[in-house]
Amino acid sequence: MRGVYTIWLRNIKRFLRSKSRIIGSLGPPLLILFVIGFGLNSVINISGGTSYVGFLIPGIISMSILFSSIFSGIQIIWDKQFGFLKETLVAPVSRFEIMLGQTLGGATTSFLQGLLIMIISLAIELHTTTLTGFLTAFIFMILVGIAFTALGVAIASRMDDMSGFNLIMNFIILPIFALSGALFPISSLPSWARTVTLFDPLTYGVDGIRYGLLGTSGINPTLDLVVLVGFTILMIVLGSYSFKKMKF
Amino acid sequence: MQTVQVNNLTKKFGDFVAVDKVSFNINEGEIFGLLGPNGAGKTTTISMLSTILKPTSGEALVNNFNITTDQNNVRKSIGIVFQDPSLDDELTAYENMDFHGRLYGIPKETRETRILEMLRLVGLEDRKNSLVKTFSGGMKRRLEIARGLLHEPKVLFLDEPTIGLDPQTRNYIWDYIRKLNKEKKITIILTTHYMDEADKLCDNLAIVNRGKIVARGNPKDLKETLGGDVITIQSKENHKLKEKLEKSSWIKEVKEHDGSITINLQHAENHVAEIVKIADKEKISIGSISIHEPTLEDVFLHFTGKTIYEEESDSKENMRLHSRMWRRSR
């Protein structure tokens, strides 16, 4: 497991060093939170007594984790292009360890970004009080981070360079975000559209984090956890399989 | 004792044979060179020996471990410096070394002292806390060499160690390589397409062309196989001149290539006048004529019929074609 730790450590070091990137990545989620959140706050009524901004916060946390975790996974393409990956691949560690290290590294850094958003949100609109609530949210945040970093690794293993990046952005990341119920309660959708959102794994992450932070949820929180754990395991299997098969 | 034993090693990509039944042995403590043009299969050979690529057939032992069945032990026995940079630019020199040390499971106490010792060896000790992206090409190379040695490998692979470096830096790198070989008694395998590099550094050589080994031996013996001297002539009618010269008994071999003729013979200085006379009789005007002792370039020409540069431009075309076809067929 020393390989996993070493690669995890590298991810953390690089993350902490790139202050401009951390601040930069806070931009889009906070922008959406402020513009859409406060812009629509008085227009939209969420059942259960939460304000729209309050409702939006868990969604924005998920968004930030989704984006940064997929990017951390895709980072492997840079390592491939700049040659650093070779250094890791000839070392006496298995590819599974490398993949796991990268995944846990990406999950940790994206969790930290989500946490930053959460802290900023606490200052504006979030009123959570219970420790269990926080811990529940953390568990879901970490699971989302692991699952989507692993997905990023799987994608990166099949790509030679960043040229396909727009495709991934437009056809994977954005749909996952838009269909997840991060911006709206899925219960207010027509039933066919609701069915579609239930196929989006992020839906269960958003719902779980929302349950932790607000105490309300659209789906049964236990079901959220079961589905998300299942999806995470599936992604780790897919990610490590693709990474093992990767040619370079 | 032999540190590396290679037996009929072969690698195919689709129907393109990159390495074709290559066999050689490397003695403990020597500097061994794989010399050949770009695209000859040197990097592919090294990739197989370092477990990055699986051979299509054949086998090899590195430090007595089989490269296909005992990968982990092979990896522990080798250090490698790739042709292309493989450092993390966003980390410092020390952190790059530390990453490597941890991956190879060097315990904390020895790790720190060894990192500093290796950095001192390549003259980068005072830059240990600088980010690698601020380093010059030569410094990066030296750092990679230091890193490759950190886990005390038995064998160090250097894939084109001085490619893209200026002459002065190349000299430095050569000095480091020699120093390592002497002080650490480490076996070194390097690939190069620079003749002078192979000549100056290597105890033994294998000349590789189009995936095959065409000659093997130490640089001195290889040059002596040509016997005597080499005369190079440029004239208006190379082909005609070559035909005339071939009839002379004192000429061992005449080759025409790339706008000039190369002649192998003994005591060249005694025959220059005769050559000019033959040309004069046939009314062939000679542009230039030069005598020199055989170099590895001449050895390469002798065994392949082409200079290394001609071969390079040919094989690049070939590779491009093949890699396109291979991609398509995948």
Write the layout of secondary structure elements.
The complex is a heterodimer of chains A (248) and B (330).
Chain A: H1 2-17, H2 19-40, H3 52-81, H4 84-89, H5 95-124, H6 131-157, H7 165-178, H8 191-198, H9 201-214, H10 221-245
Chain B: E1 2-13, E2 16-27, E3 31-35, H1 42-49, E4 57-62, E5 65-66, H2 71-77, E6 78-81, H3 93-103, H4 108-121, H5 137-149, E7 155-159, H6 167-183, E8 187-192, H7 195-201, E9 204-209, E10 212-217, H8 219-225, E11 229-235, H9 238-246, E12 251-257, E13 260-265, H10 272-281, E14 286-292, H11 296-304, H12 308-329
Parallel strand pairs in B: 3-8, 3-9, 6-7, 7-8
Antiparallel strand pairs in B: 1-2, 1-4, 4-5, 9-10, 11-13, 11-14, 12-13
By DSSP, the count of extended strands of chain B is 14
Number of strands of chain A: 0
Gyration radius of chain A, rounded = 18 Å
Average the pLDDT over all residues of chain B and give the rounded result: 85
The stretches of 5 or more residues of chain B where confidence is low (pLDDT under 50) are: none
Order of helices and strands of chain A: HHHHHHHHHH
Quaternary state of the chains: heterodimer
Strand content of chain A: under 5%
SSE pattern of chain B, N- to C-terminal: EEEHEEHEHHHEHEHEEHEHEEHEHH
Strands of the biggest beta sheet of chain B: in what spatial order? Answer: 6-7-8-3-9-10
Main sheet record of chain A: none
Structural class of chain B: alpha/beta
Task: Give the largest interface pair and sizes.
Answer: A-B, 22 and 25 residues
* Rounded radius of gyration of chain B (Å): 23 Å
Helix count of chain A equals 10
What is the makeup of the main sheet of chain B?
6 strands, mixed
What shape does the CA trace of chain B take?
elongated
Task: Specify the overall morphology of chain A.
Answer: globular
Low-confidence segments of chain A? none
Helix content of chain B: 40-55%
**Straight-line distance between termini of chain B:** 42 Å
